[in-house]
Structure formats: structure tokens, C-alpha cells
């Protein structure tokens, strides 16, 4: 394999891993706080549509990224309201939000443009100003600046979960909320913050898909990446570094299936080739016999005023 091809493969893996890694980090906080989030795809697709529409209307992709984060956070707030405030079934809430967001974004896209995808919008797919950096500049310039945001989010996540009181409180809230409440910590506020933050990070991942990786929005463009993120958190034992490593593995197989389609080396239906990352995820879950992290209490912990 030539050096040029190796660089191209590396760039492809990183590009396709960014949304999975970002969403996985958000889901890590959510699950550590004791809330299962199977609605990550709803937050991603909402963020992707919000970013693309804002970029289309204003011509400013960074404003689109901001709106994408807010759209994802809004879906996260709905999930938090159902799961944390009212003690609803977390899995049903997440899956329901996936269907709702997919339907709404498709409806609004078709209503606005008469088709399943938007016109080309202003995007931030590269960082040409980094090209002059010696040695690595040519590689770094090919990435979206959202990659820098991901690095910052990862660093903050590692610090919070491994070296801060906040991280200890999140873990404690997810493990034994009743004891934490007796210690004077507002359990519900911390849960709400984690779930809404998860939505915002997933919204940023969605914004990356529409204005960072591509320059359009299309129906179902997340293609189940949110579920890959959920699996990455589970296999990664809700730890930042392990979660990111698993998410990068899924990104590698996503890049592999894309290269398989481009090369045409495998004469198989494209739908079958596209399923490779998800087959790997299922296999990884089936073979995941490692020692689990501290248990998480996923039972709703509802305020007394809602108990009947």
C-alpha cells in the first residue's frame, strides 16, 4: 500500500469516526447518570437538519453548527423530561424519538425543497489554513474544524470522569441516587444536565454529518450511527478512552465498507456491504465477555410529587 493510499485510508477512518465518537461520549455521560438513551439517532438527525437548514438560510455554517447543537439538546430535553422528570420508560422514549425525528425532518425537508435532500449549503469540510504546518499540515487540513471540538470534548470528558468531583457525583447518581439525594445533591438536576448535554453532543455530531462531512442534508443520513455509539459505550464500560477506542473501531469498519463499495472488489448488494459495521457491532456485543464496570441503576428515580 502506497503512502498516499495509507493517508487516504487514515483520513477516511477519522472522518467517519467523528460522529460516532462524539455521540458515544455524550451517551457515556447519559448512561453514567443512570439514563439509557436509545434515541441518539433522533438527536443526530435533528442536529443535521437544523445545521443544514440554518446554513442554507444564512450562508453561515458555524451558525448552523450552533443550531444543530440546540436541536440535539432539544431532543435530549424531551427525552430527559420523559425519562427523568416523569419516570417514563427510557428505551421506549428513545426509540419513539428516533421515529419522531426521522419523520419530522423528512417532512420538513420535503415540504421546503420537494425532495429528500437539501440543495448544497455552506460547509466547513476542511481547514486549509493548517496546510502550511510542516509534516502534518497536509493531513490536518483535510479535516473539518469540528475535529478540534471533538478533541476538546474528549479531553474535558476524561478530566471530568477521572479527576473531578462532578464525575464522581455523576457516577454516584447513576449507581445509588437515593443515597446521593440524602447527601444533599440534586439528583434530578444532574440527570437532566447529563441527558441534555448528551443531546447537544449528538446534535453536534449530526451537524458534522451535514455541514462538516458533507454539504447537504438527506433523509436518514445518520444510518444508525447513534446505535453504534450506544454499543461503543456499553463495550467501552462507560469509560472515555475505552469508549473512544471502540467507536474508532466502528469508524474503521464504516470506512472499510465504503472502500469496498468504491472499489467494486466484492460483487454484493450495496445494502449488504453497508451492513458491515453493524454486523461487527453485533458480533462485538456477542463476544464481549469482559468484566463490567460498576453497575448502573437504570430504574426511574422520580420526585415524590409524581408518585401516586
Q: What does it look like?
A:
The chain is an all-alpha fold. It has helices spanning 3-32, 40-58, 61-85, 90-113, 137-140, 146-163, 165-175, 177-182, 187-213, 225-235, 240-263, 270-274, 276-286. The chain is built from 13 helices and no strands. It is globular and about 60 Å long. Helix 2 (40-58) crosses helix 9 and helix 10 runs parallel beside helix 13. Helices cover 70% and strands 0% of the residues. It has a domain at 8-221.
**Kindly, what is the distance between the CA atoms of the first and last residues, rounded to a whole number of angstroms?**
66 Å
In helices, the fraction of residues equals: 55-70%
The total of beta strands comes to 0
Unreliable stretches (pLDDT < 50, length at least 5) are none
Mean pLDDT: 90
- Gyration radius, to the nearest Å? 20 Å
Structural class: mainly alpha
The largest sheet, given as strand count, sense and whether it forms a barrel, is: none
List the secondary-structure elements in sequence, H or E.
HHHHHHHHHHHHH
Given the structure, what is the number of helices? Answer: 13
Beta-strand content bin: under 5%
The coarse silhouette is: globular
Amino acid at each position: 500500500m502506497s503512502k498516499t493510499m495509507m493517508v487516504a485510508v487514515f483520513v477516511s477512518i477519522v472522518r467517519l469516526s467523528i460522529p460516532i465518537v462524539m455521540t458515544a461520549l455524550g451517551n457515556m455521560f447519559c448512561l453514567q447518570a443512570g439514563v439509557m438513551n436509545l434515541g441518539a439517532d433522533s438527536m443526530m438527525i435533528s442536529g443535521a437538519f437544523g445545521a443544514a437548514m440554518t446554513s442554507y438560510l444564512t450562508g453561515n455554517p458555524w451558525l448552523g453548527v450552533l443550531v444543530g447543537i440546540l436541536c440535539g439538546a432539544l431532543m435530549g430535553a424531551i427525552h430527559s423530561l420523559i425519562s427523568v422528570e416523569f419516570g417514563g420508560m427510557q428505551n421506549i422514549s428513545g426509540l419513539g424519538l428516533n421515529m419522531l425525528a426521522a419523520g419530522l425532518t423528512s417532512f420538513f425537508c420535503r415540504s421546503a425543497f420537494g425532495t429528500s435532500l437539501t440543495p448544497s449549503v455552506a460547509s466547513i469540510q476542511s481547514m486549509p489554513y493548517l496546510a502550511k504546518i510542516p509534516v502534518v499540515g497536509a493531513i490536518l487540513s483535510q479535516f473539518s474544524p469540528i475535529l478540534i471540538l471533538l478533541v476538546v470534548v474528549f479531553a474535558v470528558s476524561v478530566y471530568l470522569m477521572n479527576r473531578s468531583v462532578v464525575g464522581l457525583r455523576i457516577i454516584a447518581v447513576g449507581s445509588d441516587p437515593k443515597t446521593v439525594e440524602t447527601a444533599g445533591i440534586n439528583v434530578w438536576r444532574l440527570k437532566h444536565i447529563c441527558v441534555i448535554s448528551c443531546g447537544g453532543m449528538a446534535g453536534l455530531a449530526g451537524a458534522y454529518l451535514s455541514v462538516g462531512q458533507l454539504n447537504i442534508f438527506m433523509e436518514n443520513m445518520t444510518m444508525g450511527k447513534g446505535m453504534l455509539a450506544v454499543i461503543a459505550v456499553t463495550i467501552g464500560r462507560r469509560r472515555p478512552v475505552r469508549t473512544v477506542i471502540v467507536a474508532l473501531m466502528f469508524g474503521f469498519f464504516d470506512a472499510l465498507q465504503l472502500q469496498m463499495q468504491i472499489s467494486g472488489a466484492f460483487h454484493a448488494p450495496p445494502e449488504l456491504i453497508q451492513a458491515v459495521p453493524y454486523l461487527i457491532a453485533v458480533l462485538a456485543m456477542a463476544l464481549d465477555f469482559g468484566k463490567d464496570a460498576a453497575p448502573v441503576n437504570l430504574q426511574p428515580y422520580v420526585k415524590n410529587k409524581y408518585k401516586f
